[in-house]
Specification:
Layout (H helix, E strand, L loop, with lengths): L3 E2 L6 E2 L12 E5 L4 E5 L6 E2 L4 E4 L3 H4 L4 E3 L13 E3 L6 H24 L15 E5 L2 E2 L5 E2 L4 E3 L2 E5 L5 H10 L7 H17 L6 H8 L6 H11 L18 H24 L30 H20 L12 H15 L3
Parallel strand pairs: 8-9, 9-13
Antiparallel strand pairs: 1-2, 3-4, 5-6, 6-7, 10-11, 12-13
Bound molecules: zinc ion (3 copies).
The site of one zinc ion has 4 residues, from helix 4 and helix 7.
Pfam families: Peptidase_Mx, Zn_ribbon_DZR_6
InterPro entries: UCP012641, Zinc-ribbon_6_bact
Protein name: Zinc-ribbon domain-containing protein
Length: 352
């Protein structure tokens, strides 16, 4: 993620901020510009010169700070409009969880915009667009719980809002033996299933995919059952980014896809803070040097990304240890995992 400056006072502000802590300007983010704008106190709208923007309809309810062109019929921002189902808001807890989910989802959309992956046409071809539903478990009258399973089904990503509850997520993280279990990780993972359908399935890349990730025609239900009964095979770390990636070829792809997003976004952040060995440009207005103008998101070659990433993770692990935290990056990337990441780099950047 890049760094942002308040356009009114130049104070550093963050991607999620809707107000500058220094000058109290009302801030709004325009994805097409990847920039923050501020509204003057006597104006309801934000302006970039030629275009006026209104706030996303979710600004008050869940602090969405994204903007929409003022003459757009759509009331919701690019990210919020892709959420089709939200939990029951008579519960304050549900509202808080929904807000946290949308904040993580905007980070996913940030990456999707940077990779120029597209999210489909929600208006004309909704069945092939990227869609989300955020649901809570419900109690039936006989006292049983109807569980919501987080997952992906032909473009529709379902997330159980309990994942936004930190203690709950931490409990599952420990139970599943995962080093990372985060909201942004869920979004990145589930989006991997969506983009598999569009970038791998029925394309000339399918054979290469199967050679690297295995055959996705293996029965999915049986494969998951086997995984939950027996766990990942011994030595899985040499071939997969997580134990869950061993469950099925599709899960391996989605886990590696999420990992690739972690790496590229991590490198972009490192670049903006001068942590990746490149010298950041003065001020917060320009992309740091060392990459193409688009930064790590636009890197044509895969290897330079990894050449920058590996030493950064070694340094970050050392940083965490020096203040008593667990490792920032508890992974060792083998050649097999490199090949998987490189395949994903390829399908993102080589789309004709
Ligand atoms: Zn300011
Ligand atoms: Zn929004
Ligand atoms: Zn999955």
């Amino acid at each position: 993620m890049r760094r942002y400056a308040c356009p009114n006072c130049s104070n550093e502000v963050h991607f999620r901020n809707s107000e500058c802590v220094n000058c109290h300007s009302r801030l709004g983010y325009v994805p097409a510009w990847d920039q923050m704008f501020y509204a003057s106190p006597d104006d309801q709208l934000w302006h970039d010169g030629a275009t006026a923007y209104k706030a996303c309809a979710n600004r008050q309810s869940i602090y969405c700070n994204w903007l929409v062109e003022s003459d757009d019929e759509e009331e919701h921002c690019l990210s919020c409009r892709h959420t089709l189902v939200i939990p029951d808001l008579s519960s304050d807890e549900n509202r808080e969880h929904w807000a946290a989910l949308e904040e993580a989802k905007r980070r996913l959309f940030y990456s999707i915009e940077k990779f120029k992956l597209g999210v489909g046409d929600l208006v004309h071809q909704p069945d092939t667009a990227l869609r989300f539903e955020f649901k809570a478990d419900t109690l039936t009258p006989d006292g049983k719980t109807t569980r919501v399973l987080t997952g992906h089904d032909r473009g529709l990503i379902t997330i159980n809002v309990a994942e936004a509850d930190d203690p709950t997520r931490e409990k599952y993280r420990k139970a599943m033996g995962e080093p990372y279990r985060t909201l942004i990780g869920h979004f990145r993972h589930e989006s991997g299933h969506y983009y598999w359908d569009h970038l791998v399935w029925n394309t000339p890349k399918l054979d290469a995919y199967r050679a690297i990730f295995g055959d996705e025609r293996e029965d999915y239900g049986e494969a998951l059952k086997r995984h939950y009964e027996h766990g990942a095979p011994a030595g899985w770390e040499a071939t997969h980014v997580s134990s869950y990636a061993c469950a099925h070829s599709w899960e391996d792809f989605a886990e590696t896809w999420a990992h690739y997003f972690h790496i590229v976004d991590g490198l972009e952040t490192a670049g903006w803070y001068g942590l990746d060995g490149h010298t950041p440009d003065a001020g917060l207005k320009r992309t740091p040097g060392g990459w193409s103008d688009a930064g790590p998101y636009g890197a044509a070659e895969f290897r330079p990304l990894m050449d920058a990433w590996v030493p950064l993770t070694v340094a970050m692990n050392a940083m965490n240890r020096s203040i008593g935290l667990s490792d920032f990056y508890p992974f060792v990337l083998s050649d097999t995992i490199f090949a998987k990441l490189e395949f994903i780099h390829g399908i993102i950047h080589d789309r004709g």
